[in-house]
Amino acid sequence: MNPGLLILVVAVVVAVAFGLRRRRVDGRFDDRFDDREPTGSSSSGEEPAASRDATAWSSVTAALPTAELGQQATLVQFSSAFCAPCRTTRVVLADVADRYDGVAHLEIDAEEHLALVRALDIRRTPTTLILDAAGNELTRAAGAPRREQVLAALPATHPEN
């Protein structure tokens, strides 16, 4: 077999596999933080979830002092100017916040708040964090989540307005 053709076939297979995996995980909320290095870890390398979660809202308010938590949940969206999925995510999250009592939506420009992006280990846009009423990070999704995914990830059922 021609080496050039073999390289082409391998590249196509890798690209298709990457695309299928990306489609499967994009926008899915996952509360496992195993792949992230927690800031301020203890000597054992483990950090209690409550400690890590409490820093999420305190980091947000340090960068955006006027930000307010929702009474039930806060949808924190990290976006960038030229991100098409960010616009879709904005519409979905704003719709959920408008329809459900006690749910707030906060959009943060990742380019303007690089220190916050680093502190919260945001790796791509859009990334959505769901915080509970106390500001603890419950879950996050990289990519554009669907409305059903957002509703399923909220901490409790919320009656519509």
Write a structural description.
This protein has 161 residues and is α+β, with helices and mostly antiparallel strands. The chain has helices at 3-25, 49-63, 84-99, 114-119, 147-153; strands at residues 73-79, 103-109, 127-132, 137-142. The protein has a single domain (3-153), classed as Glutaredoxin (3-Layer(aba) Sandwich). The protein contains 5 helices and 4 strands. The protein has a 4-stranded mixed beta sheet with strand order 2-1-3-4, with helices on both faces. Strand 1 (73-79), helix 3 (84-99) and strand 2 (103-109) form a beta-alpha-beta unit.
The main β sheet shows up as: 4 strands, mixed
Low-confidence stretches: 33-54
Give the CATH class. Answer: Alpha Beta
CATH structural fold name? Glutaredoxin
| Mean of residue pLDDT values | 82
Label the structural class: alpha+beta
Please compute the radius of gyration using only Cα atoms. 18 Å
Percent helix range: 40-55%
Structural domains: how many:
1
CATH superfamily: Glutaredoxin
Distance between the termini: 64 Å
For the biggest β-sheet, the strand order reads 2-1-3-4
Shape annotation? elongated
Q: Name the CATH architecture.
A: 3-Layer(aba) Sandwich
Q: Supply the number of helical segments.
A: 5
**Assembly annotation:** single chain
Relative strand content: 15-25%
Total strand segments: 4
Q: Helix and strand succession?
A: HHEHEHEEH
